Predict the structure.
Amino acid sequence: MAEKKLLMDEYVQEAPAQALKNIENSYELTKPMVDMYIEGNYTSVCIVASGSSGNGTEAAIDFMRRYMGASVELMPPFTFTHYNYELVKDDFVVVVSQSGVSTNSIDALKKLKELGKPAVGITANLENDFKDYADVEIDYGVVEEKEPYVTKGVTLLALFFMLFALEAGKRTGYLPEEKYDAEKQQLKEAFAAYEKVLAAVPDFIHAHIKELSSLQKTFLCAAGGAYGAVCEGALKASELMKILAVPLETEEYIHGYNLQLAPEHTVFFLDTDAGTSKRVRDIYRATRKVTDRAYMLTCFGGLKQDQNVLTVETTAEQSVSSIYCLPFFQMIVYTITVYLDCLEQHPLLKEFNTVVSSKSDKYAKDYIRRLNCEFEQ
């Protein structure tokens, strides 16, 4: 009989080793996509993705815009297919589904074919439905992740798009050789910081286990390169812990959302940019005036005496900061989900899934089974 077991922690720990391989192999890994971009003489990119695929993309967008000399946009598949496809008719459009079976992404591939554009599908699973709909299917370098609650896949998707930006920027001449080398080193620095977060977060969780195991109304705040991490953190908390978690751009948080703030609210902050650090810390301190359940991950010193702040110092620039912030949320969610044994969904969700599914028919039942993590050892 299959044993229920979450594999998230194993995949979170595996990500850095695979990431370093992908960085070293970046030319070959991204070449199919870079070739298409160069041959099409594109100056703008639209990445069609949602869920964790969208969050992994969001984690890379700030970096991409800086280093490939092109406009980069993230668009949800439903929006692309039914509403905004004409707005990106001159863009290099790629569609992402980590599983390769998401119906909204498959519909987006169909729409691209209908428009006479190349249907480019990026996936972690070349053997699923994407192969039947994509003109070109691109493996972004995960190797393996069996679990539907993707973690390694999100991190490596962000890395893939960053590497694509570097290789495309270099080949178009936008990115000088020395800058290309420097930014690859930045990516390595980001994964060194990732390892530091992994090492530090268990003690942080243990110190706050009462509060973290009773999360309810939760905001997650970040900006710039770190914003993708709070989007993914909110999604994972919703999927596994079954709480309402809202990702917000840091300044947006204090433009209305904070008006509901009360002592029972929890607010997480990411402080990863020297230029905005004072503002983020002021907002954090203001939040602590209302609730003791405010926490911050910072890559700068000065707050090590604050037990609600996890300090992991790094020289990595802010545009890669989602990479090392992702495991902070991933490990909190994993640990609390196991601690509370809260993975099981409400029984009525079975009725929901008889009406509509986000996955293809041949995969839907297996996907639902795997949402309850019935994996064989």
Notes: DSSP finds 15 helices and twelve strands in the chain.
